[in-house]
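testing teh design pipeline on a random one, pls ignore if ur not involved
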């Protein structure tokens, strides 16, 4: 029976899973919030309370993270993530276009979602987007070196599981990320595949260029994961408005949360 089970598994249709809706609060026009890699809906804990007096805020947890399923068959490509997000949003039976807010990896996925499903999104808000070009496309040598350093660091994390998992708690404690950063045995496969397939390899600049709804890009001046060369390209697009938040890093802490809420409101 073993060989037959294998055959059945291979020909069985792969279903797109429903993701966990971690929070659904407030009344009014809908805002969908998508968090970043190795995180959860806790990313938005400082932002949501600033919006629920005017909006219905729905926080969705990504495939493989938070309390969402982590299918063994998933390759965690940007297409797989966006398909799961779309399937989950359809289950909500929304009747009007919504504001889509993404943070970090969630902003890359949100840009692809808006590019693929343009009728569903009324406005796109990208918070701390780690938008990267190929190093060969970077004209500035400093930006090219910085991007190369990011890619080497990401590759090192993927190829050194024990080191990455063993040090993530120290990193989380050092940067006050305890409630928004998790890399463990439980989500290791979603982490490394999402990192490789959605962040290291991406087409976000072309996705943003193809979108026709207004886009706000909000980022901190101390963000550790942004490359100035790429941000300058995005800033030149007519439908994009950028907002620099002084003394803010990659995470949605109090100052960045107020800025994002201000832009949305």
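output:
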């Amino acid at each position: 029976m073993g060989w037959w089970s294998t055959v059945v598994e291979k020909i069985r249709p792969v279903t797109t899973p429903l993701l966990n809706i971690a929070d659904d609060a407030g009344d009014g026009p809908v805002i969908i919030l998508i968090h970043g890699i190795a995180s959860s809906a806790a990313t938005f804990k400082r932002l949501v309370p600033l919006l629920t007096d005017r909006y219905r805020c729905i926080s969705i947890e990504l495939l493989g993270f938070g309390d969402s399923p982590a299918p063994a068959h998933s390759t965690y490509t940007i297409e797989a993530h966006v398909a799961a997000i779309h399937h989950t949003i359809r289950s909500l039976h929304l009747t009007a276009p919504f504001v889509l807010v993404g943070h970090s990896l969630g902003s890359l996925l949100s840009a692809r979602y808006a590019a693929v499903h343009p009728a569903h999104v009324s406005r796109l808000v990208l918070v701390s987007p780690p938008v990267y070009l190929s190093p060969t496309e970077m004209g500035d040598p400093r930006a090219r070196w910085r991007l190369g350093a990011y890619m080497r660091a990401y590759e090192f994390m993927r190829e050194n599981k024990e080191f990455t998992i063993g040090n993530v708690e120290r990193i989380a404690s050092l940067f006050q990320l305890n409630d928004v950063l998790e890399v463990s045995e439980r989500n290791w496969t979603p982490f490394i595949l999402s990192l490789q397939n959605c962040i290291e390899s991406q087409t976000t600049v072309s996705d943003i260029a193809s979108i026709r709804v207004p886009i706000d890009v909000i980022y901190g001046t101390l963000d550790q994961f942004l490359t100035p060369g790429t941000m300058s390209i995005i800033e030149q697009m007519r439908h994009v408005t950028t907002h620099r938040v002084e003394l803010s890093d990659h995470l949605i802490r109090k100052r960045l949360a107020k800025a994002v809420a201000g832009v949305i409101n």
